[in-house]
Amino acid sequence: MDDRDGKIWLDGKWVEWRDAKVHVLTHTLHYGAGVFEGLRAYHTDQGPAIFKLAEHTDRLYRSAHILNMKIPFSKEEINQAHIGAISKNNLDSAYIRSMCFYGSEGMGLRADNLKVHVMVAAWEWGAYLGAESMEKGIRIRTSSYTRNHVNSTMCKAKANGNYINSILALQEALSSGYDEALLLDHEGFVAEGSGENLFIVRNGILYTPETTSALEGITRETILTIAKEQGLEVKEKRITRDEVYVADEAFFTGSAAEVTPIREYDNRQIGSGARGPITEKIQSLYFDYVHGRRGDHSEWLARVK
Ligand code: PMP
């Protein structure tokens, strides 16, 4: 996807898409010490809008803080770079990727003496786990890989290197015929998917794991708000894999994955084996909000034009 027309924001300047390159001795390329964000812009009646832009920028700064990385731009400059990535590329809906990474001034592990670079790019991207899966649901398996330990890599940081664990889990799931992995924490409790938070429904109550070993998902937060406003009882607690086996419904959430129903876990059908009624309701409300089809929570949308 590197050889195409378009503009990418790199260190405060708009550069041609195909010229947005780094040197092979880029520190983050070698060791994975970098932080990033993934978010979406959606079509609305009033032009494209970025969903929860400020929340994603805040998380980018929190991730950088955890890694002791100093972002050399203000939050407002970063927000404007995201907005520009949509407008300059004439996008109506898009996935946006922003990243802070260390430069190529030195190769030792210490990074405090290196330049911090920032990039923002946006492109059209459909349903992360496939359009059909949004209705039919996906099949997932427990990963043989344990989720990153809280005192090993920092789970609250959306850090590049943390994703080796995710990639191993996803590769394993895909190569054994599943759509996605569910990772357990080091104590055996459910943590999250390779790039999604998990929710289950049991007896009308919505449960999601605490974020001890999972990313503080921005979609997760949105779903918790939407569910509470709908009068649903919501509980954040430790969840075991067999609680998921006997759930009435289950779904993944993420900026890329949006709200994706889960129809089967470890070869056990979840509920009726189709998208459940509460999942469908929440999914449909989520899409209404991101597309600006409801009057409330307009603060969640950063208008591009
Ligand atoms: N967990 C992981 C590991 C992720 O990569 C993501 C995607 N950023 C999520 C959860 C969901 O987070 P969000 O809703 O903020 O996209």
From TrEMBL:
<comment type="similarity">
    <text>Belongs to the class-IV pyridoxal-phosphate-dependent aminotransferase family.</text>
</comment>
<keyword id="KW-0100">Branched-chain amino acid biosynthesis</keyword>
<comment type="pathway">
    <text>Amino-acid biosynthesis; L-isoleucine biosynthesis; L-isoleucine from 2-oxobutanoate: step 4/4.</text>
</comment>
<dbReference type="InterPro" id="IPR001544">
    <property type="entry name" value="Aminotrans_IV"/>
</dbReference>
<dbReference type="GO" id="GO:0052654">
    <property type="term" value="F:L-leucine-2-oxoglutarate transaminase activity"/>
</dbReference>
<dbReference type="GO" id="GO:0009099">
    <property type="term" value="P:L-valine biosynthetic process"/>
</dbReference>
<dbReference type="GO" id="GO:0005829">
    <property type="term" value="C:cytosol"/>
</dbReference>
<dbReference type="InterPro" id="IPR033939">
    <property type="entry name" value="BCAT_family"/>
</dbReference>
<keyword id="KW-0663">Pyridoxal phosphate</keyword>
<dbReference type="InterPro" id="IPR043131">
    <property type="entry name" value="BCAT-like_N"/>
</dbReference>
<comment type="function">
    <text>Acts on leucine, isoleucine and valine.</text>
</comment>
<dbReference type="Pfam" id="PF01063">
    <property type="entry name" value="Aminotran_4"/>
</dbReference>
<keyword id="KW-0028">Amino-acid biosynthesis</keyword>
<keyword id="KW-0032">Aminotransferase</keyword>
<dbReference type="GO" id="GO:0009097">
    <property type="term" value="P:isoleucine biosynthetic process"/>
</dbReference>
<dbReference type="GO" id="GO:0006532">
    <property type="term" value="P:aspartate biosynthetic process"/>
</dbReference>
<protein>
    <recommendedName>
        <fullName>Branched-chain-amino-acid aminotransferase</fullName>
        <ecNumber>2.6.1.42</ecNumber>
    </recommendedName>
</protein>
<dbReference type="InterPro" id="IPR005785">
    <property type="entry name" value="B_amino_transI"/>
</dbReference>
<dbReference type="InterPro" id="IPR018300">
    <property type="entry name" value="Aminotrans_IV_CS"/>
</dbReference>
<dbReference type="InterPro" id="IPR036038">
    <property type="entry name" value="Aminotransferase-like"/>
</dbReference>
<comment type="pathway">
    <text>Amino-acid biosynthesis; L-leucine biosynthesis; L-leucine from 3-methyl-2-oxobutanoate: step 4/4.</text>
</comment>
<dbReference type="GO" id="GO:0052655">
    <property type="term" value="F:L-valine-2-oxoglutarate transaminase activity"/>
</dbReference>
<dbReference type="GO" id="GO:0052656">
    <property type="term" value="F:L-isoleucine-2-oxoglutarate transaminase activity"/>
</dbReference>
<dbReference type="GO" id="GO:0009098">
    <property type="term" value="P:L-leucine biosynthetic process"/>
</dbReference>
<dbReference type="InterPro" id="IPR050571">
    <property type="entry name" value="Class-IV_PLP-Dep_Aminotrnsfr"/>
</dbReference>
<dbReference type="InterPro" id="IPR043132">
    <property type="entry name" value="BCAT-like_C"/>
</dbReference>
<keyword id="KW-0808">Transferase</keyword>
